[in-house]
Structure formats: C-alpha cells, structure tokens
Design a protein that fits this description.
The chain is of the alpha/beta class. The protein is built from 9 helices and 13 strands.
Length: about 300
C-alpha cells in the first residue's frame, strides 16, 4: 500500500507536459546502455535503436525515456557509456536542443536524481575528436515521473519507470546495486543468471504489472511505465496500464507511440529482403487505439478479467 501511495505522490508532484491530438511522442525505456563490454546488453541493438531514433527525429516526435537508460549499477562512470555510444547521445542532444527530449530515471540510473551528478555528467562531455568539453544536455532536469495533460480535456497520463512498486529495487536499491555489481555480474560471466532482476523473473514481472494496474484502478488515471521489460497494451475497457517493454529484447526493441490522438505498441527489428539485404523496420504490435476512448472510461468500472 505504501508503494502505491508513493506512486500517487510522484503523480501529484510531477511536472506536467501539455499535449493535444496533434502531438507526437515515443516512449522507450530500459536501454541499459553500457560501456561496450560483454555485459553491455544494449550493444547488440544499438543500430536498431539509432535507426528508430533517426526516424522519430525526422517525424517530429518528442522522445521520452522512461528510466534505466544507462546501466549505472554494473558500470560506474557515465562518461565511459557516453563515449561508447557517442552517436546515440549526440542524436538525443539534437532532440533536447529542440525541446523534444525528457529523461525519467529508473532504479539502474537512480543516481541521476541528484542534480549535482546530472550537472557533472550530463551537461557536457569530453569530445576526443575535438579535444575539449562540448555541450550535451545543458541545464537538463531529470524526473522521477512526468504527467502528460491533454490541453482540451484535462485528462492526465502518468509516466514513470515502475520500480517504485518493487521493494528490492526501490527501498533496497543500494543493496541490489551492490549485489549486481560485485556478485551477480562476475557470476553472469560464467553463465549464472541474476535471480533478483525483475526483467529475468516472471513472478516479479507479474507482481510489478499487478501493482501498477492496481494504482490505475484506484486513481482512474492512465499510466505508461517500463521496468519489467514486458510490453503491455491495454484494450479499451481494461485498466489503461501500458508498458513500453525494453530496448534489450533479443533482436528487437519495443516502445509506445502516441501520435495524432492515438496510442500504439511498436517494435523495431532487423529484417531481410529476398536478395539477402538487411534493413531495419518498424512493426505495429498493438493498436492504434484512440486515446479519447481510454479517457472516456475513466469514470466507469474496468474490465479486469
């Protein structure tokens, strides 16, 4: 119950972003960008992610990252991650410079909740090509949650990572980070899986989804989260809890789009043409559904079957 109260506290204090039926958003999370070593789970999908982000930049989307963008439990230095995935960060900086980027922190990058850390590590970075520090995300503010507020109807959508309902990854995050960094990471090099990770534990995945759905039912607000790496798209009449999945699925990345008054669950992956040429393409996994259909059910009973 205290976990749900904390989610409500985030909702009540979150910065609001106005939007309307002409707005375009892409929500992704759980990139877990690393330093390029064997434990960097983002590395295998980095080209897919970059191609998707180029598409969204050209199509005038706002990119909102719902936490765990960088793997700061296994890796200590954000500067090493930025150096390894420099092209991705420079593209995200283009979004930011046009007012089209927002970062929410998760449990694996919870250190970003400290404004001093953000100023030191995200305002600028050292460019080896130029031999000097150059701007990256100057004066950026990181969030525990954000709220999209429809300009016409006043309906709200809570954006959150989702670890707030996961006791081990919220209240005990320092212990979890210690175990990941000094116990499970070395063991994983020998093929031993980390049993504490929500993304690799079906029971924990279900528990997170169940608690976030409970919050939606209680508060009558739509919610989009990440954390458990399990894509979720609710149909009209069901509690409107959505999950964007992750960017570390085998051979694909997933996300949630809101575009022109509709919501969709999408996947980007590498495909093969008949002549053997590889290309990156987008598929719609669920939707589109009109947002207004979810807003219009906010005062009714949900179908929870």
């Amino acid at each position: 119950m205290n976990q749900l109260k904390h989610v409500s506290k985030v909702f009540q204090s979150a910065e609001e972003i106005p939007f309307d039926d002409s707005s375009r958003f892409i929500f992704m999370s759980d990139c877990h960008r690393g330093t390029g070593d064997w434990a960097d789970t983002f590395a295998k999908n980095q080209n897919i992610f970059f191609a998707a982000l180029v598409h969204y930049y050209r199509e005038n989307y706002t990119y909102i990252e719902l936490g765990d963008g960088d793997e700061l439990w296994q890796d200590r230095k954000l500067c090493d991650i930025i150096h390894e995935h420099n092209d991705v960060f420079r593209l995200m900086a283009q979004f930011y410079n046009e007012g089209r980027l927002h970062f929410i922190y998760g449990n694996h990058d919870i250190v970003k909740r400290d404004p001093t850390y953000v100023k030191k590590n995200l305002y600028q970075y050292f460019s080896e090509r130029e031999g000097k520090y150059v701007p990256l995300f100057e004066n950026i503010k990181l969030h525990e949650g954000l709220v999209l507020k429809h300009s016409d109807t006043g309906d709200k959508i809570l954006l959150i990572h989702g670890h707030q309902v996961d006791f081990l990854n919220h209240e005990l995050w320092r212990l979890s980070r210690f175990l990941v960094r000094y116990l499970w990471r070395p063991l994983e090099s020998f093929g031993v899986r980390d049993p504490t990770r929500t993304a690799k534990n079906y029971t924990k995945k279900e528990a997170v989804a169940r608690k976030l759905t409970e919050w939606v039912i209680r508060e009558k607000h739509m919610l989009i989260a990440g954390h458990n790496h399990r894509p979720r798209f609710s149909e009209v009449g069901e509690p409107p809890y959505f999950n964007d999945g992750s960017c570390v699925h085998p051979r694909c990345i997933t996300g949630i789009e809101i575009t022109d008054g509709e919501i969709l669950l999408i996947k980007w992956s590498v495909k093969t043409k008949e002549d053997g040429t590889l290309y990156i393409d987008r598929d719609v996994l669920a939707g589109p559904r009109k947002l207004m259909d979810y807003f219009n059910t906010n005062n009714t009973s949900y179908n929870t079957k």
